[in-house]
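Cross-posting from the modeling subforum.

Setting up a comparison between two proteins and wanted a second pair of eyes on the formatting. Protein 1 (sequence, then C-alpha cells):
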Amino acid sequence: MDSTRSAELFRQIVLPHLRDALALARWLAGNQSDAEDIVQESCVRALKSVDGYAGGSARAWLLAIVRNTAFTWLARHRSASLVMVGDLGDIDDVSRDADTAAEPQPTPESELIRRADQRALATAIATLSLPLREVVVLRDISGFSYKEIAAVLNLPIGTVMSRLSRGRHQVATEIRRADA
C-alpha cells in the first residue's frame, strides 16, 4: 500500500479516537507526559500496520495497540510495581462534549464535593489489580461495550463481565471503607 493511502487510512481510522487513546494511556501510565509518549509510539505502530486493519471497531483496534504499547513502554521505562492512576477530572475534561455551555455553573460547594468524590473514586480504582482496573476504566470511564473491551483486551466476554463485576464490587467496598 502506498504512503498516501496509508496516511489517509490513518486519518480516518486513528485520529478520531486519539482522545480515548490518551485517556487510556493516562490511566495505565499515571501521568500525562508518559501517556503522550505511549500514544505517540502507538500512533507510529498504528501507521505501520494500518494497511492490515481488517475493519470492525477502529476504536477497539487502536486501544488494543495503545494497551500493548503501554505495557511494553512501562516495562522498558519503569519498575513493574509502579503504575499510578490519574485524576478522574482529567478524563472528564477529555471526554466532555463541546456543548456544555447550557449547563449551569457549579457552586463552589458542589465543585468541592465533586472533586472529593472524584479523588475517592480514583483512589479506589487505583487499589484494583491491573486486570480489574483495565476493565473498569474501559467500561465505566471510557464507555466501551463488553464486546469492545473483549476485543481490546483479547478476552472472552464472560471474563470481561466477571472482572467488571469484581472490580466494581472492590471499588464500592473501598469507598465504603474510606467513608467509615
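Protein 2 (same layout):
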Amino acid sequence: MKKIFNALSMANKQIAELDTQLLKRRLRITESPCDTETIVDQRKLNAFCSNDYLGLANHPELIQALAEGANLYGVGSGASHLISGHNIAHDLLEKKLASFQSKHIPNAGALFFSTGYLANLTAITGLIKLAKPGEASIYSANLNHASIIDGVRLASIQSKTSVTLFDHQQLESLVEALKKDTKPLKLIITDGVFSMDGDITPIKALTEIAEQYDALLLVDDAHGFGVLGELGHGILEQFDITSERIVYVGTLGKAAGVSGAFVCAQAPFIDWLIQKGRPYIYSTATPPAIAHALLQSLAIIESEEGKSRRRQLNQLITHWQNEMYFSDWKKVDSCTPIQPVILGSNANALAAAKLLDDMGYWIPAIRPPTVPAGSARLRITFSANHSIKDLQELIQALQKIEQQVQVGKLS
C-alpha cells in the first residue's frame, strides 16, 4: 500500500483555502519588453502596474549597453565578489553610485547586489553584528517592505536583537522608546517611499531623531531612487539631507530600468559589510554586463533626458490628483508615481481588476498579506512613457467600472 504523502496533501489543502479566501496569487506571462503597452497572455494591454517609473526598461541606449557589456565581459561572473567575480564594471558602478550620495553621506562607499532583497538582508544583519549579541536594538516602520521585515527577523534571531515597530506618520512612540534605550547600537529602519501607499517617510524628522539618540538610520529608497530630486539621486537629494548616520539602500530594477540594488554608507560600514554580510559574501556576483548597462542608466538619470522624464512623471501625478474622483473608492494623496485606489474587500479588488482587464488594462489587485486586511486595492503606477491622454482614458475607465462594482456588497 502506498504511503500517504502528507506534505503534498497539506499543500493542496492550504492552496485551496487561499483560493476560497480570494488570496491565491497567479502568474501571468508577458511576451514583450516592459513598457506602457505589453503583450500579456497573448493579449495587448495598457500597463499601469510596473515600477519602470522613468520608462528606461526598453530604452535603446540601455539595450545597446547591455549587449556591449556582454561582448566585453561575457554573460556570467563565475563566482562571488570575494572569489573572482568582482569585475571592473562592478567597481565602476559602485564608485558612481557612491558619488550619487557623496553630498549627503560623508566618505561614501557603495556595494552592488543582485536584488534589493539581498541588499536589505545584508545591510540589516551585517550592521547589527557591530554590537555583541543582545546589545543592539532595531526600530522598524510598521509598513516596511517584506525584505526589511525578513532582514529584521533574521537579525533578531541571529544576534538576539530587540525589535520595536513604529508608525512612520506618528513618531512620538519611536522617540519615547529611544529615550529609554541604553544599548550601544540602535538602528532605525524605514522605507523612503512606501510601496503600497506611495507616501514619503518623514526623512528630516527621522534624521534628527537618529542624531539626537545616537542611532543609525537605514533608508530603503527603492521607489525614490531615480524619481526624487532634481538629478534623480533620491530622497536625500529631494530633502537636502546630510548625515554620517545614514545607510542608503537603492534599487536598480525600478526607475533605473535594469536590475539589482546597492547599499551606500560611510566607507567603514561598507567595508564591514564586505567582511560580515553573509548574503554578499556567499552570492555569485551579478553578471558584469548588467553593471555595464547600469552605468549608462545612471548617466541618463542625471542627464537632461532624465530631468525631462521626471517632469513628465510629475505632470501625470498632478493630472491624476486633480482629475480622478470616486464616489466610494478611496484615492490616496500621493506625490509619487504610486497611486493606489483602496477598494476594501478582496472580492471588490479582484472584480475591478477583471473589469479593467476586459477593457484592456493591466492593473492587478493587491491583497493581504501584502497590504493590511480590509485594504485590498488597485496599485496604479505611472511611467514617464505614459501620456496625459493615456492617463485620461484610464481615469474614464475607472469611473465607468466603479459603477459596476458594488463596494462592500461582494463577498
